[in-house]
Each structure stands twice: as structure tokens, then as C-alpha cells.
């Protein structure tokens, strides 16, 4: 008992931390009746913690009570025959005969099924065994075990069929997520995110630790209930709320710190290699000697030296005095994450959850920083048997500094013989490539690129984003089988992006050496009002029916504005835009809104837990379509068969779980910009007549009065299995989906004079296989070892466009029978060598230029004959591997993600391997140099052309920059130790785990740019790969 | 329990109320809708303004397709798009081939929109005049297309639904269309003085040029030249070349007023580009000379790409007495380039660069100059041209007639009007038209009016031929966006480009099917989007 007192004392102490909450949590509600009085304590089996608010009823009577804050209760019982029925949310109900005992200590067991064996399917939950669709569920443990601060990234590799990839590698930039392949083109491919009932564009703003679970609905029968917006899959995020809170008070503190080191930097040229390259790059264009008619060492030196204005550069080259720009710009980033959570349930049935999180991360270059503050509160109150209400709110502030978007690119591009300093070696010099001596004469005269270090120091790009998501529901259950629920969910976000360019930046230099600034603001408010009824009935103990009816309204409203000015007299960042020169003011604002009204019905029926049926239909009306096409309906049906519940398998020692699922259904997509069916004059033109300003307004798009819903038909067959008492569990799904009337921003022929139209243009098929297997390899008291594998293969194929399946639309990159991400171009095969001059000439090419595949062998390169599909940026397959080993108190886990068969246009190469350029630093490539009189050794490269003589296809068609970006990445390795024992218990600590974690330690790839995962990223935002080392602890008391 | 019933009934009421509203009607707050706005007078005017604004897109960007690969200009230190400048690897995806095609059709569709709404919009006094202006702008776009690409699709409809297939019309039909449109427009537009909008003289000038150009075509006739001459005379309307060449090109400050000889120009008042001066200005100033430094010289010198540098041939067109030489070229660059404009007494300024003309080619000339300007870099005659393979800044002679000293430093920042038609050119059109129409004596008077203004001796009838006209056009109009069209029209492109452009040889023009690469290829991007698979590429590129 001493220990208990001690614990109580601790709890009280903790409560002072949460006084506010406590004030409405503590209320005495104990009452008793006559008869014999018994007392007792109710605790949880798991952790021996007392449970407050537990219902205790004497069976068959109205005598009842609830436990107090310390889990104690007192109750009058009529006699020794009485039976206590002890029930509590999240725990298995227990019946205890009273007998002659007067003091009871009763432990309740957690209702495992209620926590993990349920799947959230949209407007409700079903038991996993009753599920008929393809749904991937991720619990909070999986989400947080890798210590990733972005919730989308935390999903990486967890669910087959769900591809997650980093878009740029820059901190704070988002992740791309695609579910079951791309079936929409033009940016509408993101799944629908629903956070506590609020549809959102992304979930980057959430703290993974606030998330209780994510359920990813993949097949049409699951997503059909979201009808209109379900065709790219639905990610349902349930944040921790009061509803699942257990009794007592649980406080957990989780914290880690990490350092993020740049890793796997691309191999750029060594200084002297660059100098060789630089000279070669002048060979094609340098002046010729009038005597020989060729470029000689002298004329080449003159061209390279720039007529004597590069004395310092030449000196540095001779002395091999180079500068390491990588080193000057890159630094180690720091990461810290702290999260405190408190949850509990009061004796009056009120459950709550409070979470406070802070994440901080600095980038690998200065001035890049992310701060994320999250506050989350969920309260749930079961007023009585019939009424429940609850509310759940998340408030997030993200403060992100993006620094300079050109600095890193510029720094890496500066040649290694330039340094950031003036001649004194200390002062930062604005243009290192334009160095002058004390007389103002050039001693380096190459590039005007602005000093990236000054650029970083004097550029601000700050994004401050508030997100508030809230949801309140009210549920009425007049009789056991019928309930009504209304819930109002609202989301608000405000994003402010402020940018300023100080006097000492490239922008400043072009603006009279004065600062300039720009401010962008965007507000979004959306609400969803769902009203539903639920009927659950069981007949003859075997026929289970559940009928859901739904009426829902959704409204989404955006407002935006921007202002900018230049030539500011003093530096006020972006906080005084008005201080700029009036004539430089630029401003604008915008508004758009879209609404959706929906009705839905869903029937679940199961017979004897063996045969399952789900039927649903949703009717949606969307404001973005013209009136006649506004409404559409999206039906679905699914069947399930729990084979393992059949008699012939009931006794099987091998198969303990086997289920077959089949589903068929339709979903829709309305992701197009509002007003697409209206002829809006969205483009402003500028002109004047003899000085009198005369603006004009026109459309750049053709309005489409025939717009209608995109519809996706999907067929899914899946098997779930558990073998040898769940030593091996897993599932296999095969699907075939066909999206018709695909919404697409279609580029129009030049002759129309319009750039594009939003139209229903194509039909595309996605077929795939998804596999997930988990094996419990070792399962003893001291050692457990679990591994899991996922595999996904999706084939994306365009079936038809514009109602026909014969003719491709090359201009829109739509090729019948190919992937939507198909890459169509000439195929680069090498470089024309010296002994191939005659053959090259036939193609109008020269030695040292790019060689292409002459597909039709007609002796020339023609667009119609020689462009082919080179590949696709859609991976052939993806997979993941997880391993988790526990030996006594130690745990060791690792995860690996795999993406294979990806071809991308590498922006990294189009810059760092661009042989048209001669002055910038380059990837360490092998370039071509023909035999020459200028004293340059000939180089017979077959991979990169002669600099400045690359040929027009290299230049105009970018044929040399397609790269295979397949990779295998070890996502993390974590080693942890669980402290336990008496000493901790004395401190009132229930659990303490300390761990070390390494993120992204190894990548195996042939890709030579920053990181294969974001090989397609733009050069300005793409960042080098990194390895993060973390140390942290999780504490529960 | 009462409370709960109350809440429930409130919700039910709310539910019924919200169901009735026009919840799904789109709320379009930001933008006007064409079907309403264009019906008003203001709206239609804004549509007209948008038509004029297309000129900025057509002429305001890179001028490769207008002047590159000719006898007058070649690349300096920086590469020009090799397809257009050297013809060897000219193909449908070559850089610079598509821009004009896309922008011309955009202008055409904007014009078609205006013509469509002319029937629907509020009737006003100026509607007919506005319609005439639009027809001129559309005809001008077709004229650019037909000269550049040959026969192209004739699009006269306003598209309210996507059209995915287009076929080519013959060049002859396109010319007929242009002429009939312009001849109708000439009666609709204002006959008043030029104030930025298309007027009668502008239409007459363009008509003269269209007829002149058609005269050379296989389907043209001598009558075309006669008609061209009479339209040119109508455009001249008896006005003499009264301004000096210097006055004609002096930059104004801070704005650039239209002068009396401008018949039509693309308007770029600083006030109309102030919201985004780095992108809304034009690029004409950024060419025709050497690189003069990056942002470190902002405010002191213009940004120039090192391309379209005047060739030796271009420089040699001028004689010592030709006033146009000093106005056209910046022969003496002060320490601060713009001091030429900003300092009244330039006699004491330090000279950084001097480009010696042909008539100062001796060592004695150089010594004399250097004695006076010891700090100057002296560029000997013959060295400051692209063929000398310049590697340093300022190594070729800068063209200064387009300078905008007040413009922000950048490539798209000039706010001077781009002159498309001016009286001097009209005289030269008249001269050429009369020459080709068999009246060289009449034509000679017109060319000599141009020469007299430049203070050079009259041409004689004996030397007056098409080459003489092209030379004179070179002197008078260098850098204005005519040269490629001039050479192509007169059939002199291959001859002159290969003779005077050091990177072009006659063989460079050899295309497929034994056809020379004179017409430009139809851009691959346009072919790729056109669903008509039978759409034919020009034979030289098939």
C-alpha cells in the first residue's frame, strides 16, 4: 500500500501541472444505497494503475457506482448472491460474484480487439474480421518508432500500394504520396486526407505523435463512401482524442535530439580537372590562328584568359589554390523534438487527451530552419447511456525559414578557383567571378554570379503557417440499435510567406543596391457538416445488419493576397512594404470557393461471421461542374468470406485465419480549379496608348461547359491470412482500376491561341499487386524477432484519349498503351567518335556531338521516326523490409525502402553535367575532346559530348539527362534499451526507453545526383542527401 | 434532457434551412466573365487593349527569328540559337522556332474574340474603328506567319470549344486574306495622328509592305508592286523626313514620346510596366552589342547578351559622312556608359573604349587618339566584329539606337517603344516598290530623300538596284526587326547571309528534298499538339 500512496502522491503532483484540466475533471459522484457495503479498488492489468470512473453495477438492480480518482469504490449490495458488473471503455467487461468478501481488488483486462482489431472505414469503424475492402492501418507505434517528424514520411514503406517520396530533400518541403498508381494527370493525384473528419490538402502540419492511427483506404469499395473525392485513395487520420483515454492519468514525455550531416555528396570535378574542362570548353569557339586556320595554344589561352583580365585566376590555377564551396556553404543541421502527452478519464465519464509538441530542425545550409509547435486537445463526454459528445482540436504553428533559394545552387556552381573573399581574404566580395584589383581592373573576369554567402546572409524567405482543425460531435442513441450523430468539422489555415532581398544580394544589386520585399498571404477555411444515422441489428444471432445513412455538406473557401515593393531606403525585412518606392508597388488578391453536397447509404451484412457483404452508394453534387453535370452517384459492393471460420478449417493447426475479399465499385474525382466551366477573364494584360495606361483582361483557357465527374471503376480481390497461430500473417491484393473521363489540363494546339482547357480527356488503367507479410521468427520470453515485407507493383496504362485509342497526343505526352509518366524523346546512345565523322555527317552531326538511336534506320534523325518511349518515372515496383529484434531489454530495428525501375529527367544533370556551359563547376564527368592543335589531350568519351559543341538534340531536347533513379535505401537503424525495475518504480516511472537512431544511413543507387528519391526535384530546392543521428528517450509515468 | 431535445430540434431546423439554399452555385468573386464584361463598352475596350498587348508578346522577347542568321549580325562571345543563326541544325525543335508561331496564333485568337464580341457588345461610336484596329493586328500576325512559315492554318473563329485538328492553307490564300482584311480595315480606322492606336497611315504602310512582299512570290505579279507603291505613297501622305536621325532616336527622359515619323509601334510606357519592370519590359536593348558586365554595372551600363553583334559588313555599310553612323553605334564608351546620356558636357569624361572607324584606320590615327585619351582601350578598325572571336567584354561595337538609360538592369527591362513602322521605312518601301514595278526613276527619289536626311550623297540611277536598297535598309533600319524578312522577301537570304555572316555557308541552307531552308520549320511543339497527322511539315525539314 505504501507504493500506492506514493503513486497517488505523484499523480497529485502531476495534476498540479494540469490544474486547468483538473478543475473540471474532479467531481465527486459517488452515491450508495442501503444493505451491506463493500469497498474495493479497480486497476488495470497492464500497469496496475488505478482506474477512475469505472462503472460498477449490481446485476439486475439499479444499484451502481463509479470509482473515484484513486480507483476506489464503495457500494451497497443486497446480499452475497449479488454479481458486480464492472465495465469501462477500452476494457473487457468483468462479472464478479460478491460472495462474502467485503474488500475487492479487481483488475480489468484491456480490450485488445477494440484498439487494434478495428478498422476505420469512413463514417464509422468495422471489426477487422468483418472488413471487405482493402485498407491499410498504421498504429501510432509504427508511425513514431522511426522518429520521423513528418507524418507522411512516417508512412514510407509501411503500407503496400502506398508510395511516399521526398519531393526535394529541403526541410519543411512536402512528400509526394501516391496510392495505387497515378490515375489522374495534372496535379490531382494526391489522396484525400481526412483528419478527424476535416478534409485537408496535406497533413504535414501534424505532429506524428498526436496521431492515434492512420487508415489508408485503397480500393473502391472502401473509398466509395467518400465518393467524389475517393479515386486517389483516402488517408483517414485519427488524432488522439479523449474517447480512447484510459482511466487514471498517463503522462508521457518523449524527446530526442539529432544531428543531420550531409551525405553522399555528388562527386564534382577536382580543381585541376575543372581547369582542364574549362579550357576544353573554349576549343569549339576560340579564335583561330590566321596562319594555321586552327585553334592553337595561343589563341586558346587568349580565349580562356579573356585578354589578360584573369591574372588572379591563372595564378590560383598555377598554384592550385582552390576553394571548397561545399565546405563553405554546407553545415551540420540540428534536430530536436519534444512531446508531452497527458491523457486520462474522470469518474464522470469524461475522457481527455492533451498533447504539446515542439519540433525544431535546422537545414544543411544557413538560414534554413523549421519550427513546429503543436497543441492538441481532445475531450469526450459520455453524458449518459444515450448521449455522447466530444470535441477535438489541433492547433499548429509552423515557422519555416527557407533562406535563399538560389544560394546553394550558385555556390555549387562556382568554379573551384573562386573564393568568396575580396583580395584581403576576409571581406566577402559581392561577385567572386568579377574580382578587381585596387585600380578597379579585373583580375578575375568570368561570371557575374552573386556571392552565395552574401546571398544566404541577406535573403529572407519566411513562411509562417497556422493550422487549426477542430471537430465537435454530438451523438444520440435512443435505443440500442439506433444512433444519430451530427458532427461539424472545420479547418482553418493561414499562411504568410514573407520574402526580402537585402541590398547585398543579386536582387539588391539590380535594384540600385537597395532592399526589396514581397509578402504573400493565403487563408483557407473549410467546414464539413456530417449528419448520419446508424442502425445495427442482429437477427437469430447470426444475421448482423448495419445500415448507415449520411447527409453531408462541405464548403471550402480560399482568399489570397500579395504585395511587393522595391528600392526600400532601409532594411525592414518584409515588415514595411510601404517603405518602397511607390512606382514599384505591385499587389493582387484572389478568391475561390467550392462546395459539395452529398448523400450516402451503406449496408453491412454478415452471416455467422463467415459471409460478409457491403453495399454502398454515394450521391455527390459539386459546384465546380456545370449545372447539368453536377450530380453523380458512386455505387460499390463487396463480399468477404472468413474461410477460417468454416468447420473444415476451424481445427486446423496450420491456418488460423483465412479470409477472401472481393470488391467492385466506382469513385469520382472533382479536383479541378473552380470556375473551369466559366469564361473567366483571369489574365491581365498590360499596354498603353502614347503613355495612357490601358490594361486588358482575357482568358487563357477555354471554358468547358461539358465538364463532368471523373469516374474510376475498381475491382479488387484480396486474401488475408494467418498461419501457425499468427506466426506468419499477411495479405495479398490484386486490383484492376479504370479511370474514365479523366480530368486533365489539356494543352491545346498552338493554332487555337489558347494554352489549355480543363477537360475530361482520357481513360487510364492501373493494375497491380500488393503484398504484405509479417513473420514472427522468434518468439520467446527473452527474445522476439519480427520481420515484415511489402511489395507493390503497379502498371499504369493509358487506354484512350478523346474517345479513341489509335492516335497519341504527343504534345500532351499522352501515349496509348503507355504510362501517364512516359518519357518520349530521342534515345541518346553515345558520342560520335573521330572515326565516325563520315557517318555523323550523314546525320548533320559532327565529331564530339551526341549520337542518337536511328530507330527507323533512315539515316536521319526525325521527330516522327526516331522519338520513342524511353521509360517512365513511374517505378516498376517498390518494396520495403522491416526487422525488429528484442533481446531482453534491448531492441534493434531497421527499415529498408526499395524503388526500382524509375527513369527521371534529372535537373541536377541538366545543370551540373551541362556541357554547353564552360565556366561553372561540373559533375566529375568524362567529356569529349577531339584531336586539336591547341595542345589539349584528346579524350574519347562516349558519355558526354565535346563542351560547346554538343549538338542540337543535346541542347534542345535534353537527350542526355534522363537517368535511372532506382534505389535501395536503409531508412533507419535504431537501437534501444528499456530501463525497468525497482529504482524506476520508486520514482513513479512506468517505462523509460533510451535509444539511438540513424536515419537514411545507406543508399544504394547508380544515380549520381543528390539523392535518387528526389532526382526530379528542381535545382533551386533540391538538397543534398543527409544522414541523421538521433539520441532520445521515451518516458511514461 | 430538455436541453438535449432542444439541441436536436435546432439541428433539424438548421438542416432543413441549409438544404434549400443555392449551396452548389459557384461564387465567382475575382474575375469578370467574358459573356458579361465584353458586352459593356469598358469591357470591350479592355478586350481591345488585350489585342494590342499581344504585340508585346510577339515583339518583346528574343528577336532571333527576325534578325538572326542575316548579313548584319552574328554571335559575339555568347551563342545564338544555332539553328536560326547558322541554318545547319535548323529543325522543328530548334530554339526560337516556336515562339512566333505560338504568339501569333494567340494574337489571332484574341482578335477573333474581339471580332466575335463586336456583334454582341454594346453599340458605340468607336466600335467600327476598334474592329478595324483588331483586323490590322490580326492581319499583321498572319503576315508574320506567312513570311516565316509559309502557308499556315487560317483561323478566323473564336473558339468556345477545343479544336484539336488544323490543316494548312496555301500561302496565296493567306496573302489574299491579309489583303482583304487590311483593305477593309483601312476604311474603318481613324485617320487622325498616331497616338498609339492603329490609324489609316499605319494600315497603308502595312498594305504597302504586304503587296511588296507578295510581288516577289510565285503567285504575285508586277501589279502588286504598283499597288505597294501607291499604298506607300498614301502612308507617306506627303510628309517629309524632317527630323534629324539623331532626334529620331534620342531617348526621352523619363518617357519616350512618339515622334512625328512613327507610323506604328509597340507601346511601352514606364507606367505600364511598373508592377513588374523586370519582366514586363522588352528585350530589344539587350542585343546588338557586347556584354558590358553583370549586375555589378547596374545603373551604369545596360545589360547586353553578347549576341547579334554587327558584322564587318554592317559596319562597312556606313561612310564617314553618314550621320546615321554616330547615332547607330556607341563609338566612344565613357567610364560610365550612360554618361553619354546623363552628362551634358562629355568632353572631360574618361573614355574606356574607342572603336575606330574605317576612316581612322592608320597607326597615326590611333596614336593621335591615344594621346588625347591615354586610358582608353583602342579597338582598331576590323577588330571589333564577331568574326574576330571576341572573348572580352566590350570587344564588339555596341549599337546604341535602342538604349534606355533609365531602365532597370536586366534583360526584359526596356521601356522604349519598339518601332514597327516609321516614315523612313515607308520611303524605302516606296523606293523598292517603284523599282520592282519598273519605275526606278520614281523609286530613286524616295531613296534619296532618306539619304539626304542622313547627309550622304544621292544614289544614281545606275547603281540603284535591289542590293542598293538592301544596303540602304541596313543603314537606315539596322536592328529594327526587319532584316530576315527583307532578305527572304528579296530572295537574297542565301547569298547575303553566306557572304557576310562568318558562320554561314551556302551549303548550310541545304534542306531535305533538295529544298533550301528558307521558310522556317513548323514548330515541333505545334505539330505534336495538332491531332491532324497529315499536317505537312515544310519540305526542307521533312
Main attributes?
heterodimer; A: about 1050 residues; mainly beta; Immunoglobulin-like; 22-stranded antiparallel β-barrel; 5-stranded mixed beta sheet; 18 helices; 48 strands; about 45% strand; disordered N terminus; B: about 550 residues; mainly alpha; Serine Threonine Protein Phosphatase 5, Tetratricopeptide repeat; 3-stranded mixed beta sheet; two-stranded antiparallel sheet; 22 helices; 7 strands; about 45% helix
Short structural description:
The complex is a heterodimer of chains A (1037) and B (542). By secondary structure, chain A is mostly beta strands. Chain A contains 18 helices and 48 strands.
User: What is the helical fraction of chain B, as a range of percent?
Assistant: 40-55%
Uncertain residue segments of chain B: none
CATH superfamily of one domain in chain A: Carboxypeptidase-like, regulatory domain
Rg of chain A, rounded, reads 33 Å
**How large is the share of residues in beta strands of chain A?**
over 45%
**Which sequence of strands runs across the widest sheet of chain B?**
4-5-6
Query: What is the oligomer described by this structure?
Result: heterodimer
CATH architecture of one domain in chain A: Sandwich
Q: What would you call the structural class of chain A?
A: mainly beta
> How does the helix and strand content of chain B classify structurally?
mainly alpha
Discrete helix count of chain A? 18
The best one-word shape of chain B is globular
Overall pLDDT confidence of chain A: 86
Order of helices and strands of chain B: HHHHEHHHHHHHEHEHHEHEHEEHHHHHH
> Could you say what the CATH architecture of one domain in chain B is?
Alpha Horseshoe
What Rg of chain B is obtained from the alpha carbons, in whole angstroms? 27 Å
Amino acid at each position: 500500500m505504501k507504493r500506492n500512496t506514493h503513486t497517488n502522491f505523484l499523480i497529485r503532483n502531476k495534476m498540479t501541472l494540469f490544474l486547468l484540466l483538473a478543475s473540471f475533471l474532479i467531481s465527486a459522484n459517488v452515491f450508495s444505497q442501503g444493505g451491506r457495503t463493500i469497498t474495493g479498488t479497480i486497476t488495470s492489468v497492464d500497469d496496475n494503475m488505478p482506474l477512475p470512473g469505472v462503472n460498477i453495477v449490481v446485476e439486475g438492480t439499479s444499484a451502481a457506482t463509479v470509482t473515484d480518482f484513486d480507483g476506489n469504490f464503495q457500494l451497497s449490495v443486497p446480499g452475497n448472491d449479488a454479481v458486480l458488473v464492472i465495465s469501462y471503455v477500452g476494457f473487457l467487461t468483468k462479472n464478479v460474484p460478491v460472495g462474502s468478501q467485503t474488500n475487492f481488488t479487481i483488475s480489468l483486462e484491456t480490450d485488445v480487439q477494440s484498439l487494434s482489431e478495428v478498422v476505420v472505414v469512413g463514417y464509422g469503424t468495422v471489426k477487422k474480421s468483418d472488413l471487405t475492402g482493402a485498407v491499410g492501418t498504421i498504429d501510432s507505434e509504427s508511425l513514431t518508432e522511426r522518429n520521423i517528424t513528418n507524418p507522411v514520411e512516417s508512412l514510407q514503406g509501411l503500407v503496400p500500394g502506398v508510395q511516399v517520396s521526398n519531393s526535394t530533400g529541403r526541410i519543411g518541403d512536402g512528400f509526394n504520396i501516391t496510392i495505387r498508381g497515378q490515375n489522374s494527370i495534372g496535379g490531382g493525384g494526391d489522396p484525400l486526407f481526412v483528419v478527424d473528419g476535416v478534409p485537408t490538402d496535406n497533413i504535414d502540419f501534424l505532429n506524428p505523435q498526436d496521431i492515434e492511427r492512420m487508415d489508408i483506404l485503397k480500393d473502391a469499395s472502401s473509398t466509395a463512401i467518400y465518393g467524389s473525392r475517393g479515386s486517389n485513395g483516402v488517408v483517414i487520420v485519427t488524432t488522439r482524442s479523449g474517447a480512447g483515454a484510459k482511466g487514471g492519468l498517463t503522462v508521457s514525455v518523449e524527446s530526442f535530439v539529432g544531428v543531420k550531416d550531409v551525405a553522399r555528396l555528388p562527386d564534382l570535378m577536382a580543381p585541376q580537372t575543372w581547369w582542364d574542362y574549362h579550357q576544353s570548353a573554349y576549343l569549339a569557339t576560340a579564335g583561330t590562328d590566321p596562319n594555321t586556320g586552327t585553334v592553337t595554344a595561343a589563341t586558346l589561352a587568349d580565349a580562356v584568359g579573356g585578354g589578360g583580365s584573369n591574372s588572379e585566376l591563372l595564378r590560383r590555377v598555377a598554384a592550385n589554390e582552390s576553394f571548397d564551396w561545399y565546405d563553405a556553404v554546407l553545415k551540420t543541421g540540428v534536430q530536436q523534438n519534444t512531446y508531452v502527452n497527458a491523457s486520462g478519464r474522470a469518474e464522470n465519464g469524461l475522457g481527455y487527451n492533451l498533447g504539446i509538441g515542439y519540433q525544431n530542425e535546422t537545414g544543411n545550409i544557413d538560414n534554413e530552419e523549421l519550427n513546429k509547435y503543436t497543441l492538441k486537445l481532445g475531450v469526450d463526454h459520455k453524458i449518459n447511456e444515450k448521449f455522447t459528445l466530444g470535441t477535438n482540436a489541433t492547433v499548429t504553428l509552423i515557422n519555416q525559414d527557407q533562406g535563399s533559394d538560389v544560394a546553394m545552387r550558385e555556390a555549387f556552381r562556382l568554379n573551384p578557383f573562386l573564393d568568396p573573399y575580396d583580395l584581403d581574404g576576409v571581406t566577402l566580395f559581392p561577385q567572386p567571378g568579377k574580382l578587381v584589383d585596387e585600380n578597379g581592373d579585373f583580375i578575375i573576369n568570368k561570371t557575374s554570379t552573386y556571392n552565395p554567402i552574401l546571398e544566404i546572409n541577406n535573403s529572407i524567405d519566411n513562411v509562417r503557417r497556422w493550422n487549426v482543425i477542430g471537430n465537435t460531435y454530438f451523438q444520440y442513441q435512443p435505443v440500442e440499435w439506433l444512433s444519430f450523430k451530427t458532427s461539424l468539422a472545420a479547418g482553418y489555415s493561414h499562411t504568410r510567406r514573407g520574402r526580402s532581398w537585402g541590398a547585398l544580394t543579386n536582387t539588391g544589386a539590380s535594384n540600385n543596391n537597395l532592399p526589396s520585399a514581397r509578402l504573400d498571404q493565403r487563408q483557407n477555411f473549410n467546414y464539413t457538416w456530417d449528419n448520419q444515422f446508424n442502425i445495427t441489428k442482429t437477427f437469430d444471432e447470426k444475421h448482423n445488419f448495419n445500415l448507415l445513412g449520411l447527409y453531408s455538406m462541405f464548403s471550402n473557401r480560399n482568399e489570397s493576397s500579395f504585395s511587393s515593393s522595391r528600392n526600400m531606403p532601409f532594411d525592414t525585412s518584409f515588415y514595411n512594404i510601404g517603405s518602397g518606392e511607390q512606382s514599384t508597388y505591385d499587389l493582387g488578391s484572389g478568391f475561390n470557393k467550392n462546395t459539395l453536397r452529398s448523400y450516402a447509404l451503406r449496408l453491412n451484412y454478415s452471416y455467422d461471421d463467415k459471409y460478409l457483404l457491403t453495399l454502398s452508394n454515394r450521391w455527390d453534387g459539386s459546384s465546380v461542374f456545370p449545372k447539368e453535370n453536377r450530380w453523380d452517384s458512386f455505387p460499390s459492393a463487396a463480399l468477404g468470406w472468413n474461410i477460417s471460420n468454416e468447420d473444415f478449417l476451424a481445427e486446423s493447426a496450420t491456418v488460423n485465419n483465412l479470409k477472401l475479399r472481393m470488391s467492385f465499385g466506382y469513385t469520382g474525382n472533382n479536383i479541378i480549379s473552380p470556375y473551369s466551366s466559366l469564361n473567366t477573364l483571369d489574365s491581365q494584360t498590360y499596354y498603353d496608348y502614347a503613355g495612357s495606361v490601358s490594361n486588358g483582361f482575357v482568358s487563357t483557357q477555354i471554358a468547358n461547359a461539358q465538364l463532368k465527374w471523373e469516374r474510376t471503376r475498381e475491382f479488387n480481390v484480396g486474401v488475408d491470412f494467418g498461419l501457425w497461430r499468427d506466426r506468419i500473417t499477411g495479405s495479398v491484393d490484386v486490383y484492376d482500376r479504370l479511370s474514365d473521363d479523366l480530368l486533365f489540363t489539356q494543352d491545346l494546339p498552338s493554332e487555337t491561341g489558347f494554352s489549355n482547357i480543363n477537360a475530361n480527356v482520357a481513360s487510364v488503367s492501373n493494375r497491380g499487386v500488393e503484398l504484405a507479410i509479417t513473420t514472427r521468427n522468434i518468439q520467446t520470453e527473452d527474445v522476439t524477432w519480427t520481420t515484415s515485407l511489402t511489395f507493390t507493383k503497379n502498371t499504369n496504362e493509358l487506354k484512350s484519349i478523346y474517345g479513341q485509342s489509335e492516335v497519341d497526343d504527343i504534345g500532351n505526352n499522352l501515349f496509348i498503351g503507355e504510362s501517364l509518366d512516359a518519357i518520349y524523346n530521342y534515345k541518346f546512345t553515345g558520342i560520335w567518335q573521330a572515326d565516325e565523322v563520315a557517318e555523323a555527317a550523314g546525320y548533320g552531326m559532327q565529331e564530339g556531338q551526341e549520337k542518337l538511336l536511328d530507330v527507323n534506320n533512315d539515316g536521319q534523325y526525325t521527330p516522327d521516326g526516331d522519338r520513342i518511349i524511353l521509360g517512365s518515372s513511374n517505378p516498376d515496383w517498390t518494396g520495403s523490409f522491416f526487422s525488429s529484434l528484442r533481446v531482453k531489454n534491448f531492441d534493434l530495428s531497421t527499415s529498408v525502402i526499395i524503388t526500382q525501375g524509375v527513369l527521371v529527367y534529372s535537373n541536377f544533370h541538366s545543370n551540373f553535367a551541362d556541357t554547353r556551359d564552360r565556366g561553372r563547376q561540373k559533375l566529375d564527368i568524362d567529356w569529349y575532346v577531339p584531336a586539336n592543335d591547341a595542345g589539349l589531350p584528346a579524350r574519347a568519351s562516349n558519355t558526354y559530348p565535346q563542351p560547346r559543341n554538343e549538338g542540337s538534340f543535346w541542347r534542345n531536347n535534353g537527350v542526355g539527362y534522363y537517368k535511372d533513379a532506382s534505389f535501395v535505401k536503409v531508412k533507419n537503424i535504431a537501437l534501444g534499451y528499456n530501463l525497468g525495475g525497482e529504482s524506476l518504480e520508486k520514482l513513479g516511472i512506468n517505462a523509460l526507453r533510451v535509444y539511438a537512431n540513424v536515419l537514411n544511413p545507406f543508399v544504394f543507387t547508380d544515380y549520381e545526383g543528390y539523392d535518387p528519391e528526389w532526382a526530379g526535384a528542381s535545382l533551386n530546392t533540391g538538397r543534398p542527401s543527409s544522414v541523421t543521428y538521433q539520441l532520445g528517450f521515451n518516458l511514461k509515468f | 434532457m430538455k436541453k438535449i431535445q432542444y439541441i436536436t430540434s435546432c439541428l433539424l431546423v438548421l438542416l432543413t434551412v441549409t438544404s434549400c439554399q443555392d449551396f452548389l452555385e459557384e461564387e465567382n468573386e475575382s474575375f469578370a466573365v467574358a459573356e458579361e464584361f465584353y458586352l459593356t463598352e469598358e469591357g470591350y475596350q479592355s478586350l481591345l487593349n488585350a489585342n494590342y498587348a499581344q504585340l508585346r508578346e510577339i515583339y518583346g522577347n528574343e528577336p532571333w527569328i527576325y534578325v538572326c542568321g542575316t548579313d548584319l549580325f552574328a554571335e559575339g562571345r555568347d551563342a545564338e540559337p544555332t539553328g536560326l543563326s547558322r541554318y545547319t541544325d535548323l529543325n522543328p525543335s530548334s530554339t526560337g522556332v516556336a515562339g512566333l508561331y505560338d504568339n501569333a496564333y494567340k494574337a489571332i485568337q484574341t482578335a477573333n474574340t474581339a471580332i466575335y464580341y463586336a456583334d454582341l457588345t454594346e453599340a458605340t461610336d468607336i466600335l467600327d474603328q476598334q474592329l478595324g484596329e483588331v483586323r490590322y493586328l490580326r492581319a499583321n500576325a498572319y503576315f508574320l506567319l506567312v513570311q516565316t512559315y509559309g502557308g499556315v492554318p487560317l483561323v478566323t473563329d473564336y473558339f468556345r470549344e477545343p479544336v484539336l485538328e488544323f490543316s494548312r492553307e496555301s500561302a496565296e490564300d493567306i496573302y489574299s486574306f491579309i489583303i482583304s482584311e487590311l483593305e477593309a480595315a483601312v476604311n474603318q480606322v481613324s485617320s487622325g495622328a498616331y497616338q498609339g492606336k492603329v490609324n489609316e497611315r499605319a494600315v497603308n504602310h502595312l498594305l504597302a509592305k504586304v503587296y511588296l512582299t507578295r510581288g516577289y512570290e510565285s503567285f504575285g505579279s508586277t501589279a502588286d508592286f504598283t499597288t505597294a507603291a501607291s499604298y506607300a505613297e498614301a502612308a507617306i501622305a506627303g510628309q517629309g523626313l524632317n527630323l534629324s536621325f539623331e532626334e529620331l532616336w534620342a531617348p526621352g527622359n523619363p518617357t519616350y514620346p512618339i515622334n512625328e515619323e512613327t507610323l506604328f509601334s509597340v507601346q511601352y510606357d514606364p507606367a505600364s510596366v511598373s508592377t513588374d519592370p523586370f519582366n514586363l519590359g522588352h528585350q530589344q536593348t539587350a542585343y546588338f552589342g557586347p556584354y558590358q558586365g553583370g549586375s555589378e554595372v547596374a545603373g551604369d551600363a545596360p545589360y547586353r547578351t553578347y549576341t547579334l553583334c554587327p558584322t564587318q559588313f554592317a559596319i562597312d555599310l556606313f561612310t564617314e559622312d553618314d550621320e546615321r553612323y554616330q547615332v547607330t553605334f556607341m563609338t566612344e564608351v565613357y567610364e560610365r556608359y550612360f554618361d553619354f546620356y546623363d552628362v551634358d558636357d562629355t568632353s572631360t569624361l574618361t573614355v574606356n573604349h574607342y572603336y575606330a572607324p574605317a576612316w581612322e584606320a592608320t597607326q597615326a590615327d590611333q596614336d593621335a587618339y591615344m594621346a588625347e585619351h591615354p586610358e582608353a582601350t583602342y579597338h582598331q578598325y576590323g577588330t571589333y566584329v564577331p568574326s574576330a572571336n571576341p572573348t572580352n567584354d566590350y570587344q564588339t561595337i555596341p549599337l546604341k539606337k535602342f538604349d534606355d538609360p533609365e531602365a532597370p538592369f536586366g534583360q526584359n527591362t526596356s521601356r522604349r517603344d519598339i518601332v514597327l513602322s516609321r516614315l523612313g521605312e515607308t520611303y524605302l518601301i516606296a523606293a523598292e516598290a517603284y523599282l520592282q514595278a519598273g519605275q526606278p526613276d520614281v523609286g530613286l527619289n524616295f531613296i534619296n530623300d532618306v539619304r539626304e536626311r542622313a547627309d550622304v550623297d544621292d544614289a544614281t540611277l545606275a547603281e540603284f538596284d535591289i542590293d542598293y536598297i538592301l544596303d540602304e535598309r541596313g543603314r537606315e533600319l539596322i536592328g529594327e526587326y526587319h532584316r530576315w524578312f527583307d532578305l527572304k522577301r528579296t530572295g537574297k537570304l542565301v547569298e547575303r547571309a553566306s557572304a557576310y555572316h562568318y558562320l554561314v555557308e551556302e551549303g548550310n541552307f541545304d534542306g531535305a528534298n533538295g529544298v533550301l531552308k528558307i521558310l522556317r520549320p513548323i514548330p515541333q511543339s505545334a505539330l505534336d499538339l495538332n491531332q491532324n497527322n497529315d499536317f505537312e511539315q515544310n519540305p526542307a525539314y521533312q
